[in-house]
Structures are given as C-alpha cells and as structure tokens.
Amino acid sequence: MHDMIYLDNGATSFPKPLEVYQFMDQFYRNYGVSPGRSGYDLCIETGELVEDTRRLLCQFFNGTDPNRLCFGYNSTDALNLVIFGMLQRGDHAISTTIEHNSVLRPLFHLAEYDGVEVDYVPFNEKGFVDPDDFGKLFRNNTRLVVVNHASNVIGTVQPIAEIGRRCREHGIPFAIDASQSAGMIPIDMAAMNVDVVAFTGHKSLMGPTGIGGLYVREGIEIRHTRAGGTGVRSAVRTHLDEYPYRLEYGTLNTVGVSGLHAGVKWVQQQGVENIHRREMALARILRDGLREIPGVTLYCLNDLADHISVLTFNVDGLEALNTGTILDVDYNIACRTGLHCAPLVHEQIGTAEIHGSVRFGIGPFNTEEHIRTAIDAVREIAESRQD
Ligand SMILES: Cc1ncc(COP(=O)(O)O)c(C=O)c1O
Questions:
Q1: Greatest extent of the chain over all pairs of C-alpha atoms, in Å
Q2: Which residues of 123-159 are buried (b: 16+ CB within 10 A; e: fewer)?
Q3: What is the pTM of this model?
Q4: 150 CA closest ligand 1 atom index
Q5: pLDDT score at 303
Q6: Are the C-beta atoms of residues 175 and 334 closer than 8 Å to each other?
Q7: N or C end: fewer C-beta atoms under 10 angstroms in the chain?
Q8: With a 6 A CB cut-off, is 100 part of the ligand 1 pocket?
Q9: Residue 19 in 3-state DSSP?
C-alpha cells in the first residue's frame, strides 16, 4: 500500500513546509520567553518577532496599522470576539447559510439568549450569495454583516467586494471569515471593502494550530468581552482599550506566532496566486475524474471559477462516513466526512438527512498522482456499490 494520501487540507494543512518546523524549533529553543513584559534582551527580541509578524500580516491583508492586527487562538476565537463584541440586545445582523459554526453558533447564541435578530442570506444552486440580497435586508439597527469568504464545504468564493460595497454605502461594519481563503486567494481589505478579517493560522497560511487572529480597520470598534493581563499598564482596573491589547488576553502563543511567521513567509515566497493556480489545476482534474463516475454525486461543482480547492461529493447509496472509512482503510486516503461544521450548507444542498458528504481538500503538497489515485479509489468504491 502507498503512503497516506492526505486530502484533508480543508481541515488543516499537512504537512507544513520544512521552514515552518525548523523556524519554530529554533525560535522556541532560543526565544521561548514571554514577549514584551520585561526589559531584558531576550524578551525584547521575542517581542520583535511578534511585532514583525503583526506587520507581515497587516501587509498581507493590505491593512494600514499593524497594531490593529490582534492575535488569538484561531478564527473561531477571532469570530467570537467580533460577533460578541459588536452585537448586543436590540441589534440586527446579517449572515449567510454558507457559514461555518464558528459564525453560526455565536449568532444562534445571541439570537437565543440576548435578543439579537439575524437574517441569513441563502446561496444559489451554484453556491454563491447575491450581494443585492444583503441590501434588501439592511435595517436601521443592522450592526454587523459577517460572511464566509470561501466555503469549507462546497469551495465557492463569495463576491466579497460587492457585499462590502453595499455595507460601506450604508455604514454597516462588514467582517469576513477568511479561514479557508487566507493564503489560498489574495485578500486586499481595502479593495474588498472589508472592515474585519478573521483568520486562522493552520490552514493555507501554513502555520501551526492554536494561532490565528483578526485585523480590525480603523474606525471600527469591537467591545472587549474578556479581560485580563496585557503585560503593560497593569494598574489600570479595566481591560485596555487600545489595540492590539484590546483584543489580546494573557500570554501570547509566541511559538504559534513564530510558526505563522514562517508559514506566511513561505506563502509569500511561493506567491498566493501560484499556489492557487496549481491547486485549482489539481481540483479540475479531480472534479473531471469524479464526475465521469456513474453513481457519484458532486455538489456545486459545475464551474470552478471563483473556487478554492475544496470539493465535496457522495457515492450514491453509501453514507459519507462509510465512504470515508473505506477510503481510509482500503486506500490509505485521508478525507473529511459529515457536516463539516456547516449544517445550513448541508440543509440547502440536501445532504443533511444523509449525514453530509465526503470532502477532499487539496493542499500545496498534493500531486497529480495523489489525485489520480483518489479518483480511481472512488471509482472502485462506486463500482462495488453497483455489483
Ligand atoms: C470556513 C471556516 N470557518 C471557520 C473555521 C474554524 O477554524 P478554526 O477551527 O481554526 O477556528 C473553519 C475550519 O474548519 C472553516 O473552514
């Protein structure tokens, strides 16, 4: 049997570039102290890497003030800070049915317990939301629009600039969940009319788990919903208002920051467009191969324009979990099955009752051979259902 073929890059990228492992190792051995809290050299140097990484990511998203780049654990953490910090009783928010639970559950929570009203814009049969639908839902009390940039289930990339333009015209803050898109497709906050970007480090930014964050554009204020140590101005009784402290709590995950630093550098060296082009070439081979197999249903995959390299399908008559188990046990292919933390997507594509779908997520280290092997495996599984 061949070595494992990893097609679960939608969950987390694996492996990481060698540079990431090496940089994290040498950084943590040599600079593993708490940054910015004291005046000794090592502490200052550790803090410099953190500030360098803020600058790197600020530039990466085309922000203007590195202090408005705040680190957290991941995008779930960042989205919680945004959603709970921008909405309160009596407010209205707009989101979409393409969201991940990292957006849906905070919104459901606020609707259930805190009197926030939320509308969800549905996507069309190709997997895209219509920017005009947002305009129709704007109210005087709409305080936030939050939209998934790229779907972790069907892979579609939403028309963010157009949605952002409508929000801007009405003065409504606009946040995007860039979990799947950051590092996979270029994100220019200014050109895309985006006010807040929430990102996670461990997917296409090629960093480790446990590090992520958000960039908050000037003029957008997020209330702090937590409080704690910042390492500076300790006598102040309430949590600090100035960024980045406003949205950072306790000792930073500096080893995570170091891995993210190396990951982003690697992505920049390769070029986001080049990574995307290469992965989409593989995605096309995969889509074309899968759609020729009788007994395989693909979802929202007619056109791969405005798409990331995430594809979802089912083998007719087989629950996704079972297909995934066969791929793993018989073919040594790792994929993701189920609802992918995005229950409304599955409700809309009709896969909720059959417990979801199988997802292949292509990463920068996948090869054409991996893809052809995966197609052959799915063909054999589908043929065995028809015997
Ligand atoms: C679209 C989307 N949003 C949010 C998340 C949450 O990312 P994390 O688990 O790193 O917080 C994911 C991860 O699967 C995702 O795909």
A1: 74
A2: beeebbbebebbeeebeeebbbbbbbbbbbbbbbbbb
A3: 0.97
A4: 1
A5: 87
A6: no
A7: C
A8: yes
A9: helix
Q: What are phi and psi of 181, to 5 degrees?
A: -90, -35
Q: What percent of the chain has pLDDT over 70?
A: 99
Question: 316: closest CA among 382, 387, 384?
Answer: 382
Ligand 1 atom with the shortest distance to the CA of 177: 3
Taking a C-beta distance cutoff of 8 angstroms, is the pair 24, 258 a contact? yes
The per-residue pLDDT for range 115-131, each reduced to its tens digit, is 999 999 999 999 999 99
pLDDT of residue 386: 76
Whose C-alpha lies nearest to ligand 1, atom 12? 179
Q: How far is the C-alpha of 89 from the C-alpha of 87, rounded, in Å?
A: 7
CATH code: domain 18-270 is 3.40.640.10
**Closest CA to ligand 1's atom 15:** 179
* Separation between Cα atoms, residue 332 and residue 178, nearest integer Å: 30
Q: Which CATH number fits domain 5-15+271-386: 3.40.190.10, 3.40.1380.10, 3.90.1150.10, 3.30.360.10?
A: 3.90.1150.10
CB of 76 sitting under 6 A from ligand 1 = yes
CB 158 within 8 A of CB 96: yes
